[in-house]
From TrEMBL:
It comes from the Bacteria. It comes from Methyloceanibacter superfactus. Keywords: Membrane, Transmembrane, Transmembrane helix. This is DUF805 domain-containing protein. Signal peptide: none annotated. The lineage of its organism: Bacteria, Pseudomonadati, Pseudomonadota, Alphaproteobacteria, Hyphomicrobiales. It holds the Pfam family DUF805. The keyword Transmembrane applies. The keyword Translocase does not apply. GO terms for cellular component: plasma membrane.
């Protein structure tokens, strides 16, 4: 698997397996680095700043992975932004403590939770479960053609 192509390119198509692998890698990196930030720096101003930088840094590879998967579904890669941008904003609101606590979320907390849940369901169904366009489409050849 070409990691540079998966995480840094917006060209071409990837199949469901590569999308799942890319998302799992991004999630593991996020959890590990987020845990290190919280343990070393806590949830104070500098820890929150580093968590924000982490979220912004992981946005690009997440967008690249999702854009290529939307290409496989014969949809523009920009479609990923309809889910990723609201999720990023909701996550940043949570990082900055604007949503209450996990045990007692405020109104904004409930809205952010619903946004993240909606995007998660949409992406899992659209990108993780549904098959891509068979054969050639507007964004390139079938990524499964090389496997068969």
């Amino acid at each position: 698997m070409d990691l540079q192509y998966i995480f840094a390119s917006f060209d071409g198509r990837i199949n469901r397996a590569k999308w799942w692998a890319g998302i799992v890698i991004i999630l593991v990196v996020s959890i590990i680095i987020g845990f290190i930030i919280e343990v070393v720096f806590g949830t104070g101003a500098f820890g929150t700043f580093l968590a924000t930088v982490l979220a912004l840094a992981l946005f690009y590879p997440t967008y690249a992975v999702c854009a290529k998967r939307f290409h496989d579904r014969d949809r523009p890669g920009k479609t990923a932004l309809y889910g990723l941008v609201p999720s990023l904003i909701a996550g940043l609101f949570q990082t900055w403590g604007l949503t209450g606590t996990p045990q007692e979320p405020n109104g904004l907390g409930w809205i952010c939770t619903l946004i993240n849940l909606g995007v998660l369901l949409w992406f899992v169904i659209e990108l993780g479960i549904l098959k891509g366009t068979p054969g050639q489409n507007h964004f390139g050849g079938d990524p499964l053609a090389a496997i068969n």
